[in-house]
Structure to design on (209 residues):
């Protein structure tokens, strides 16, 4: 079974996202693995008029939220089932596109540039950063923002069977790696889990120099 097939099988078995959150919003951005928990899109600064790429866009819900705030969005996911669901849910939004592709392939082939790149439990966690980060940087406008989240190193959590190695890094390691690949002002925060949960979330933000 190929990597794409493994991810597609995982995607098909995933539960759909709620249509409304606890605040009654129909779109929202969630960096963590828990509902209604953690920071919102303010991590990215103002997004209106900005070109946003999400690597591992899943059902498209996070990216769709940014588009409702005035961004132009491109979502890339390795699983064909993800693109199908994203188009069904959000295809009506202008300025929003989805594509099935492996992240490094897309970045190597596209001639687009982006002001914001995000990955929420997505490609940055599953692709060797020494391969992926230079490609991301090459497609980012100077001063652009890269932000991504995943479980803290050593955490236990669900992993799709045969879907690839997770590239866990400590905050200091992410700082060194990102700086070495053309990023600056690296900020890493550990978001505590909600009450009753044991595992938090690591959130990383950096600027394209």
């Amino acid at each position: 079974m190929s990597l794409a097939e493994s991810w597609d099988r995982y995607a098909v078995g995933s539960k759909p996202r709620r249509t409304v959150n606890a605040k009654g919003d129909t779109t929202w951005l969630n960096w963590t693995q828990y509902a209604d928990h953690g920071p919102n899109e303010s991590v990215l600064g103002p997004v209106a008029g900005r070109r946003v790429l999400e690597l591992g866009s899943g059902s498209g819900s996070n990216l769709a939220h940014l588009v409702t705030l005035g961004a132009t969005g491109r979502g890339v996911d390795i699983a064909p089932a993800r693109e199908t669901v994203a188009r069904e849910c959000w295809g009506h939004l202008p300025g929003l596109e989805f594509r099935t592709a492996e992240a490094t392939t897309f970045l190597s082939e596209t001639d687009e540039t982006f002001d914001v790149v995000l990955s929420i439990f997505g490609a940055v966690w599953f692709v060797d950063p020494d391969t992926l980060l230079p490609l991301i940087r090459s497609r980012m406008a100077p001063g652009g923002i890269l932000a991504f989240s995943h479980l803290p190193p050593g955490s236990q959590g669900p992993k799709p069977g045969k879907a690839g190695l997770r590239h866990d890094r400590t905050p200091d390691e992410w700082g060194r790696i990102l700086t070495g690949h053309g990023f600056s002002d690296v900020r890493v925060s550990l978001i505590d889990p909600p009450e009753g949960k044991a595992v938090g979330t690591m959130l990383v933000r950096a600027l394209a120099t």
Observations:
- Residues 80-90 form the longest helix (11 residues).
